[in-house]
């Protein structure tokens, strides 16, 4: 939206070489902003990953809890939770930054004694990396040159923690089951990235009959395509829902309408302007009932400014307040809205009910 507004402003105010120079400067600014957003996303992913790791280790260290008949909570540490607390404290210590060399050496020795309790290829590699870091620190190697080695130690120790043989409490928290036969259950194929993923990685709507793209592919598609700016339509829809709740007549249709539907109504049916004054600033427009005695619906609405809407809702007889050509124009818009929303099964029942109600009112 910002890019569109700036481009329109440049095209409106500048011409010739000045316009080209302004557009080039705008393109460079957009590139810098996109790069800045990308850096923020990378930093956020790193922070979220670290938080998820600490949350997992914290669950392993939580004591058993149960509530007594009098409402008091009783906690009890088991051998497995104590093991989880020990591993959590070691992980926090080795992942800490800017600590003195003596403390770092002490933490590494504690880690070495912990992993040496179990003999395997993973623990041997961790011990070898610990010995290497201790040797490099004794040689006065700079801290910046040890970052890669320390990350490898943290990563391998995290793998050590996620093995149920070394940390029994983590067995019930792992997403990947220990039994390979269970991997074949609830696994689907994403035709976009061509990966086999668990069912939790697929956003499936309630009316969907097939498995679509995974979450990462949907996110990538959302970033690559042109964004739809729904902010203005969201404000109108929120104001409309608040006003419908105030009627207290059990209105339902307004809560079925979504942002794309509201966008279609405003852009295609009402042409983004007030029906009375043709005012086109969406921030000052609201949707209200055309006939306030009936529930709001796309075929019983009108787009007006806030002042016009207040005056419209005070009217008792629309036929006397408005001229016949204006009423005919509103009715035509309502017919177009009916034809559009008749495609949705959820709306069809309300559409038939409103038709019967309108016929009964005309008969009266």
UniProtKB/TrEMBL annotation:
UniProt superkingdom: Eukaryota
Signal peptide coordinates: none
Gene Ontology biological process terms from the UniProt entry: cilium assembly; flagellated sperm motility
GO cellular component: acrosomal vesicle; motile cilium
IQ motif and ubiquitin-like domain ranges (all copies): 47-184
The protein's name: IQUB protein
Origin organism lineage: Eukaryota, Metazoa, Chordata, Craniata, Vertebrata
Gene of this entry: Iqub
């Amino acid at each position: 939206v910002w890019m569109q507004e700036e481009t329109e402003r440049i095209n409106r105010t500048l011409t010739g070489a000045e316009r080209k120079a302004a557009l080039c400067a705008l393109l460079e600014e957009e590139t810098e902003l996109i790069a800045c957003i990308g850096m923020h996303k990378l930093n956020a992913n790193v922070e979220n990953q670290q938080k998820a790791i600490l949350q997992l280790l914290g669950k392993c260290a939580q004591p058993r809890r149960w509530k007594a008949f009098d409402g008091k909570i009783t906690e009890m540490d088991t051998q497995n939770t104590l093991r989880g607390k020990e591993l959590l404290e070691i992980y926090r210590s080795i992942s800490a930054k800017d600590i003195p060399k003596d403390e770092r050496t002490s933490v590494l020795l504690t880690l070495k004694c912990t992993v040496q309790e179990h003999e395997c290829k993973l623990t041997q590699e961790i011990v070898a990396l610990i010995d290497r870091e201790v040797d490099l620190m004794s040689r006065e190697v700079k801290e910046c040159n040890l970052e890669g080695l320390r990350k490898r130690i943290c990563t391998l120790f995290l793998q050590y923690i996620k093995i149920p043989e070394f940390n029994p409490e983590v067995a019930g928290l792992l997403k990947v089951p220990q039994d390979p036969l269970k991997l074949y259950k609830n696994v689907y194929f994403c035709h976009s990235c061509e990966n086999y993923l668990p069912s939790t990685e697929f956003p499936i709507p309630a009316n969907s009959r097939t498995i679509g793209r995974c979450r990462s592919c949907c996110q990538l598609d959302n970033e690559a395509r042109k964004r739809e700016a729904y902010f203005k339509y969201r404000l109108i829809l929120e104001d409309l829902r608040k006003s419908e709740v105030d009627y207290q007549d059990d209105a339902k249709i307004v809560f079925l309408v979504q942002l794309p539907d509201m966008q279609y109504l405003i852009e295609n049916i009402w042409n983004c302007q007030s029906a009375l004054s043709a005012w086109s600033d969406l921030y000052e427009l609201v949707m209200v009932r055309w006939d306030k005695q009936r529930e709001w619906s796309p075929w019983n609405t009108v787009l007006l400014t806030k002042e016009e809407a207040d005056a419209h809702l005070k009217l008792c007889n629309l036929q006397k307040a408005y001229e016949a050509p204006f009423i005919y124009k509103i009715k035509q818009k309502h017919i177009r809205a009916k034809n559009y929303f008749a495609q949705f099964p959820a709306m069809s029942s309300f559409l038939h009910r409103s038709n019967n109600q309108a016929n009964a009112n005309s008969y009266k």
